[in-house]
Design goal:
Strand content: 5-15%
Number of strands: 3
Number of helices: 5
Order of helices and strands: EEEHHHHH
Structural class: mainly alpha
Number of domains: 2
Helix content: 55-70%
Largest sheet: 3 strands, mixed
Shape: globular
């Protein structure tokens, strides 16, 4: 790593010299970027907000995604009902971008997992729907009772 004080304001510049790649960094820039990384790790904007019921909430998101796919597959004609329920949860619980991302990923994981498994409605798909709806209701009731 070569240090150069004569370079312009660009703190990190990759220069191709004699068929090898070298990185030129200003001395103050290395300290700045180190401090930036340390400070951003402790910033509330970057930290994922942890709540005691996150595990249940993420499972509920996954179940809603699976139910959304399976009910649509089995011809329930509910439109975006389950996605709307997920949107309501995200409005209530998605206080940061990372939290919303986490909830969205779990919803999509549930949806995609069952879209790979079922291509048409079967008795086992209908059984899965009823189990998932029951589990989602149980999680919801438990969260309502246990969270102040």
């Amino acid at each position: 790593m070569a240090f150069s004080l004569s370079r312009p304001l660009n703190p990190i510049a990759c220069l191709l010299k004699r068929r090898r790649l070298s990185v030129v960094i200003r001395p103050g820039a290395a300290i700045f970027f180190t401090l930036l990384m340390v400070c951003s790790a402790y910033s509330p904007a970057f930290a994922l907000e942890k709540k005691p019921y996150d595990k249940q909430l993420l499972r509920l998101s996954e179940l809603l995604g699976a139910v959304h796919y399976l009910r649509e597959l089995c011809g329930a004609n509910e439109g975006q009902l389950w996605r709307k329920h997920m949107s309501e949860i995200m409005k209530a619980e998605g206080s940061t971008a990372l939290r919303r991302l986490s909830l969205t990923r779990r919803f999509n994981f549930g949806y995609r997992s069952y879209s790979r498994t079922y291509s048409h409605c079967t008795p086992s798909a209908q059984t899965a729907i009823s189990r998932f709806v029951n589990e989602a209701a149980l999680i919801s009731d438990t969260m309502v009772r246990n969270i102040p």
